[in-house]
Amino acid sequence: MINIAVMGYGTVGSGVVEVVNTNGARINQRIGEELNIKYVLDLKDFPGNPVQEKIVHDFETIIQDDDVKIVVEVMGGIEPAYTFVKRCLLAGKSVATSNKALVAKHGAELLSIAKDHNINFLFEASVGGGIPIIRPLNSSLTADEIEEITGILNGTTNYMLTKMFYEGADYDSVLKEAQANGFAERNPEADVEGYDACRKIAILSSLISGQQVDFEDIYCEGITEITVEDMKYAKAMGAAIKLLASSKRYSGNRLHAIVAPCLLYPDHPLYNVNGVFNSIFVHGNVLGDAMFYGSGAGKLPTASAVVADVVDAAKHLNRNIMTMWKQEKLKIEDKAGSRRKFFVRMKGSEEELLPQILDSFGEVEVVKVPGLDGEFGFITPVMMEGDYETRAGLYQDQILHMIRIEEHKK
Amino acid sequence: MINIAVMGYGTVGSGVVEVVNTNGARINQRIGEELNIKYVLDLKDFPGNPVQEKIVHDFETIIQDDDVKIVVEVMGGIEPAYTFVKRCLLAGKSVATSNKALVAKHGAELLSIAKDHNINFLFEASVGGGIPIIRPLNSSLTADEIEEITGILNGTTNYMLTKMFYEGADYDSVLKEAQANGFAERNPEADVEGYDACRKIAILSSLISGQQVDFEDIYCEGITEITVEDMKYAKAMGAAIKLLASSKRYSGNRLHAIVAPCLLYPDHPLYNVNGVFNSIFVHGNVLGDAMFYGSGAGKLPTASAVVADVVDAAKHLNRNIMTMWKQEKLKIEDKAGSRRKFFVRMKGSEEELLPQILDSFGEVEVVKVPGLDGEFGFITPVMMEGDYETRAGLYQDQILHMIRIEEHKK
Fold first, then answer.
1. How far apart are CA B384 and CA B314, in angstroms?
2. Given this model, what pLDDT does residue B337 score?
3. From the list B22, B135, B143, which residue is nearest A286 (CB)?
4. Contact present, A307 and A299 (Cβ < 8 Å)
5. According to the model, what pLDDT value does residue B145 have?
6. What is the pLDDT of residues B280-333, one digit of tens each?
7. What is the mean pLDDT of residues A140-148?
8. Cα–Cα distances in Å, from B152 out to A288, A346, A376, B161, B280?
9. Where is the active site (chains A, B) (predicted)?
10. Going along A205-358, which residue ranges are E strands?
11. Domains plus CATH for chain B?
């Protein structure tokens, strides 16, 4: 019998208990031993719930029980999660977590402790919820240099942008609706400002570079400025707007990483990812294009990934399997050097401004939306973001909005 | 240093050598040791090619060299591949293969030999080319009961159906074009009759059931009967036609498996998979929907998957990691018991036949294509295939074609 403890009985924690109860027979068959949840750590009690007999309020109960070989951390937040997880690993207990904030900040250190103790620190659920992406990167795409990883990594904003695109609704009303039906938090900042996606792409960037990428270094722009008018231009261009979190290798270990709403054309594999779904596009230098799609959040999909980590930890009780992610920091390249097309919405009349725009930006493509008077849009040629900014500086008073264009390279 | 041998220097074999040459530094870093291709087995010589110095013509050279720890089998076909692979495993050498025919037929036995010898028999590249699917099923989706796995598993037929759909071309001319540009073999039977997809879904069915599923037991219908007219009806229905290979769990370990062209609506995750790409949709009882997409064939993508298996084998030299697939045979359920809607093209006039059709099939939905005179189509309610066949028997002389409809259950 393999005893585990679950720290946190919130949404994901109760999902973990449910998954083990529901699929226990199959899980035990895969491990080759019986998996037993010995403790559930929570501040609260759950009288009348069968979980109550496993509830403990004191972390010391778990850390001092040598029978507990694997600990699930699904409390969220940095503290006390970080202290608890570190003590578990130092005590020789493997840890599985869904906590992206913890992994983004302390992943390298926790992996290194796990390695020293011949145990495992696993975090499949921290990116993409139920979608397998961490383990594929670590153990499937091992023959490749990963040149790009671009994801729709936040279900809330994808749900909102999908609604805005297909129903023409505005940002505020879509946010209210998403909050009403539980797809957005009452304080939606972490989602709509892109912070959640930013932590996730920091984790993926660390994994593909093998070094620590700090999320604070990644330029992060949310969806709060996306308007009904922007969506009309997107439709006129035959494109969709998605919040993309992207990491691209320019040469050697030089990574460009960014979180921002982007215009995507239908030939991009992420174009059709709608609603609360997440999807992660990967380009390997020999593999070519691949994509992983599924439920990026939710109680049971996330719990499915956490329990899969528990199974993996149980099959590798005294053997470290993870991963190339050193504490040495990788400085993300300045976004001024990244290259792409830009879509620009401009106040004023095309006739008047276009000659000057052609002069500053080169051969632009004009986009007009019938009914939107007193403004027009244009698409720049591919240029460095620094060069775009220099040119955009000339039109500070006229530029209404700029949205980056993400093209699918073939 | 870890020495390996590559058996077969055809498309995939030369790709394996190229991937190891290109990404050797990263691969060695992942393994923690230097990977060295010691032998390449082929009947031919390759004078002037650097591979020549590794070429051997006699399998005995490989089997008798105790330095060779991992053997790559990319010869294809059952013999001599089966004999060679079995001898390698019995001699304590791990094997990585892309050979779907070999895996479908002898996978269970070869896995059992590998387990007995504490080594590994790995076959990621046998299904979906470069797309990671075997390893995710084996080590990521381990907390789930997999209730459905449905894939576009053959790039040739998907390329052809995409051309037929978007360009209105007929089967014969699309086949000729695919042959001319190398997407189809001169003898296209294995692809267009669905045999290739059938072996792949047999492998996936064995993995999700844990028992041997024989491809001969799976009903297999190719794309040779798909016409320009069928595509017109598909468009009228807002649907696409794809060659799907599918395995569904009805209850317990009762599996329905089938290979057949199917009509898909845009809400199905596989609807947008076009051209030579492959994609595999998976539904787990707690995970929900997931999808894996990428290059299903081709020299480098396939080689990427083979080399990833080599890396895994190198990291687990004396430890068996694969998998639940017993030799005990699982009898696939009779397709008469599977349930779905059917699209039927009928000769004759709607006015005349519809009353009788409503009487036999229940509330059907009529589909008309402007310009296609003397015929009409209808969509049946969800029914068992056996019941459909009984009813279709009444209209033998009028039914021009039946295509199954694959609905995405939410």
1. 48
2. 95
3. B22
4. no
5. 95
6. 999 999 999 999 999 988 999 999 999 999 999 999 999 998 678 999 999 999
7. 96
8. 18, 44, 42, 11, 6
9. 200 (proton donor)
10. 219-220, 240-251, 254-264, 277-284, 288-295, 339-347
11. 2-130+300-315 (3.40.50.720), 136-294 (3.30.360.10), 337-406 (3.30.70.1150)
Binding residues of B: 7-14, 100, 185
| Chain centroid offset of residue B49 CA | 33
Residue B295, min C-alpha distance to chain A (Å): 7
Which of A144, A267, A272, A279 is the best residue to mutate to test the B interface, defined by the most B CB atoms within 10 Å of its own CB? A144
Could you report how far apart the first and last alpha carbons of chain B are, in Å?
51
Residues of B whose CB is below 8 A from A312: 139, 142
Q: How far apart are the first and last CA of chain A?
A: 51
At residue A366, the 3 state secondary structure works out as strand
What's the CA gap between B214 and B203, in Å, rounded?
9
Question: Structure tokens of B114?
Answer: 């590998």
* Average pLDDT of span A120-148: 96
Task: Specify the pairing of strand A240-251 against strand A383-384.
Answer: unpaired
C-alpha span between B211 and B328 (Å, rounded): 6
Residue A270 gets which letter from DSSP?
Answer: T
- The per-residue pLDDT for range B200-247, each reduced to its tens digit, is 999 999 999 999 999 999 999 999 999 999 999 999 999 999 999 999
Q: Give contacts of B144 with chain A, Cβ < 8 Å.
A: 23, 26, 304, 308
Neighbour-count burial of A36, counting CB atoms closer than 10 A to its CB (0-12 exposed, 13-18 middle, 19+ buried)? middle
